UniProtKB/TrEMBL annotation, chain A:
SUPFAM superfamilies: Periplasmic binding protein-like II. It is found in: Cell envelope. Belongs to the bacterial solute-binding protein 1 family. Keywords: Signal, Transport. Its main location: other. The keyword Signal applies. CDD domains: PBP2_TMBP_like. Coiled coil: none annotated. Residues 1-21 form the signal peptide. GO terms for cellular component: cell envelope. This is Sugar ABC transporter substrate-binding protein.
From TrEMBL, chain B:
Residues 87-298 form the ABC transmembrane type-1 domain. Gene3D superfamilies: MetI-like (1.10.3720.10). It is found in: Cell membrane. This is Sugar ABC transporter permease. The lineage of its organism: Bacteria, Bacillati, Actinomycetota, Actinomycetes, Streptosporangiales. GO terms for cellular component: plasma membrane.
Length: 446, 310
């Protein structure tokens, strides 16, 4: 009796310790029996995974000692997941990195400085789209190798544009200004149709019974408005920060930004754009697919999600010209990886023309290498899509401005989003809400 | 044989008075059976709580070592208007959610008790509770969408104006609360229904003989005798309700402006998107103390440990 009780106790104790151990496990790297090194590579865009799998296959064929395991999770989960894994010391060896996130990771020594490798291999960084590679350098340390870039353009429903008797050729030179919205607002108004078939320019237009909105509205985008308003503000002369990258002062109090945001929110009041609370979180695609909105400004990363009823046009020309935000992703190496050399080999391959040409063929994003980007353009053309609007904008030396890179990005986003939403909901005026939040934002940098 | 059987429980009973239970077989075997639960409790509750308490006195961004800052986080918390707003929003959520959920569940339980004993119906009532929270949140987000959602479509057909629901600043938190009421009402109803089984039938018979109607019997028999169960259900739903996170995380993400930024979501944002782990811990500590106080007060007010039946 006594022994059995003790055995029972021991068994239970062991069992429960095992359970606890099982929960905390999984952190250690176990080398495969054949001495093969397995690298984990993380990305967030499911549409790009097949292309990168091709890269991985090509890489593995050349480097039989290394195998690549790709993991993918959606944008929101990606960063939560990555943070948790960094804290646990179990992060992927190589991961897709974003300009708004890397300063924080670099400051906490989570990303490896690859400058020594670049120097050793004498890597030519001029093959990349101008300016992209240097975005990943801070204080002489390099934290990533460019993989792709994106710009913003207009996507429109071809049938609705034809029905509104607008010639899409006019889009090539259309204008915009914050006062009356220029040609752009006129097109938006013409494309807006109410329940009785009257368009937005009709004096009897009923803004409370809109069947099709001229411009779709994507929620969010408070601090940087990448797909929503950044191009309008910039073409009016607004500049986000004192310098970029690594500015330490935001200019959200600029009256030029306020007039742009007030104009943008004004489209809602006129009935040309859906009310902010009705724009929903499902994204603009379902609305456009359902024919409930005719046009929207969007990023080049969404190209492949638009069907054959849609076409692309360049952004309108503002008082200061045509401006698009250009943003680039890169591949970074986790500072704690036990396989530094192998990880660099993989990153170098990801940043090479060989891999980026494979990405180009899949026509999902524009690769960072200019010659590969041209191949992507050709692949899109072969698939029946004219995406030259995005590429022409990127190649215009005066036409792009970079995604603002600063510290405290997540906090800036939360603060500015609240202010921006209050304007879009009609509860505040941009000329008071934005200067107020600007003070709070700049306090973060004190 | 018969003697030993009788003798054993007797001996045990006297032994119980002899000394602290640790020193005898009972305590030890109890410990054996408690061990898995205790280990789990220590590993998943006690240790994290103590660590959290420690983090609340530090400046810690998860990736570098924590720096001790004393009470700074608590000071920052008192001056943080988003924090106070989050508490207010959570309060609105809890009151609306617990009130609607309990009233509806009580009604449902009475119907099940007085009208039908069908197991089918009991199972059906529980159905929404069996679906994962995230699925429910996604389901309702689609249903309530202003442009392609079914609910707004139906409302427009019968001539009502389109509503923003989750994304309207005035409706956001109430919509989240309603979604969770919908999910939990069946479960709560079953708990109350089970409680009603404890009420002796003869009281209803007596009531009927005395000429009481259903409403009178509900007020004067069911409700008073259900009080201990009702109190338990209220305490449990109140605490559960305070923990609202998933529906908000999946649908509104705290917006628009701060209309649905409930306290748990704010803590999560601070800890895992803005890396202010120390500050997030301070808010969590505050929340624990608040919930403990609230529970004690509630138990006291509802006299949950005594029954009128006794």
């Amino acid at each position: 009796m006594k022994t059995s009780r003790r055995t029972l106790f021991a068994t239970m104790l062991t069992l429960s310790t095992l359970t606890v151990a099982a929960c905390g496990g999984g952190g250690s790297e176990t080398p495969a029996a054949d001495g093969k090194v397995t690298l984990t590579y993380a990305l967030w865009d499911d549409r790009q995974q097949p292309a990168y799998q091709q890269c991985a296959d090509a890489f593995q064929a050349k480097n039989p000692g290394i195998s690549i395991k790709i993991t993918q999770s959606g944008w929101d989960q990606y960063w939560t997941d990555l943070t948790a894994k960094l804290v646990a010391g179990d992060a992927p060896d190589v991961f897709t990195d974003h300009l708004s996130r890397y300063p924080e990771l670099a400051a906490n020594n989570q990303v490896m400085d690859i400058q020594p490798f670049v120097d050793k291999d004498k890597l030519d960084l001029s093959v990349y789209q101008k300016g992209l590679a240097d975005l990943w350098v801070r204080d002489g340390k390099r934290y990533g190798l460019p993989k792709d870039w994106d710009t913003i353009a207009v996507v429109y429903n071809t049938e609705q544009v034809a029905k509104a008797r607008i010639d899409p050729k006019e889009f090539a030179t259309w204008t915009w200004n914050p006062t009356d919205g220029g040609d752009f607002e006129k097109a938006v108004a013409k494309l807006t149709v109410d329940g009785k078939g009257r368009n937005g320019l009709d004096p009897d237009f009923d803004k409370n019974d809109v069947k099709t909105y001229g411009l779709a509205l994507e929620t969010g985008g408070g601090a940087y408005g990448q797909g929503q308003w950044s191009h309008f503000a910039a073409s009016d002369g607004f500049v986000f920060t004192d310098k970029n990258p690594f500015g330490s002062h935001y200019n959200y109090d600029d009256p030029k930004l306020a007039e742009t945001i007030n104009w943008y929110a004004g489209l809602i009041k006129k009935g040309y754009m859906p009310p902010y609370d009705q724009a929903g979180k499902l994204g603009v695609t379902p609305m456009m697919e359902a024919g409930k909105a005719a046009m929207v400004t969007t990023g080049s990363w969404t190209i492949s999600s638009w069907g054959k009823d849609f076409a692309f046009a360049p952004l309108p020309v503002g008082p200061q010209g045509r401006k698009t935000m250009i943003n680039g992703l890169a591949d970074s190496i986790y500072a704690g990886t036990p396989h530094k050399d192998e990880a660099w080999k993989w990153v170098r391959f990801l940043g090479s023309a060989e891999c980026q040409d494979l990405i180009a063929q899949n026509a999902v994003v524009f690769p960072a290498i200019t010659t590969s980007a041209d191949k992507a353009l050709a692949a899109h053309k072969a698939a029946g899509r004219d995406v030259s609007a995005f590429v022409d904008e990127a190649n215009d030396p005066q036409g792009t401005f970079l995604y603002p890179i600063t510290d405290n990005a997540a906090k800036v986003e939360q603060l500015v989003l609240a202010a921006y939403e209050s304007v879009m909901l009609g509860k505040a005026d941009a000329s008071t809400a934005l200067p107020a939040v600007n003070t709070e934002v700049n306090n973060l940098f004190q | 044989m018969a003697a030993t059987i009788l003798e054993r429980p007797l001996r045990r009973r006297t032994a119980r008075r002899a000394g602290p239970s640790w020193q005898r077989g009972h305590g030890r075997i109890a410990l054996v059976f408690l061990a898995p639960a205790l280990l789990g409790f220590a590993a998943f509750y006690l240790v994290p709580t103590v660590r959290g308490l420690w983090f609340s006195f530090t400046d810690y961004n998860l990736l570098s070592d924590p720096d001790v800052v004393g009470l700074d986080n608590y000071g920052e918390m008192l001056g943080d208007r988003v924090f106070w707003n989050a508490l207010k929003v959570t309060g609105v959520y809890v009151v609306f959610n617990v009130a609607t959920q309990t009233v509806l569940a009580l009604g449902l339980a009475v119907l099940m008790e007085r009208l039908t004993r069908s197991v089918m119906i009991r199972a059906m009532v529980l159905l929404p509770w069996l679906v994962p929270n995230v699925t429910i949140a996604l389901l309702w987000m689609w249903l309530l969408d202003a442009n392609v959602g079914f609910v707004n479509h139906v409302m427009e057909q019968i001539g009502l104006a389109k509503q923003g629901f989750l994304f309207s600043p005035d409706q956001s938190i109430l919509t989240v609360a309603s979604i969770n009421t919908w999910r939990h009402v069946g479960y709560t109803a079953l708990l109350l229904f089970a409680g009603m089984q404890l009420i002796p039938r003869h009281l209803y018979e007596a009531g009927r003989i005395d000429g009481a109607g259903e409403w009178r019997m509900f007020r004067q028999i069911t409700l008073p005798l259900l009080r201990p169960v009702l109190a338990l259900v209220l305490v449990v739903s109140l605490i559960g309700s305070f923990q609202i996170f998933d529906t908000v995380a999946v649908t509104t993400e705290g917006g628009p402006v701060n209309a649905s930024r409930v306290i748990y979501y704010y803590i999560y944002e601070k800890a895992f998107t803005q890396f202010e782990f120390g500050y997030a811990s301070a808010m969590s500590v505050f929340l624990i103390l608040f919930l403990v106080a609230l529970t004690l007060l509630q138990m006291r007010l509802l006299r949950a440990s005594t029954s009128d039946l006794a």
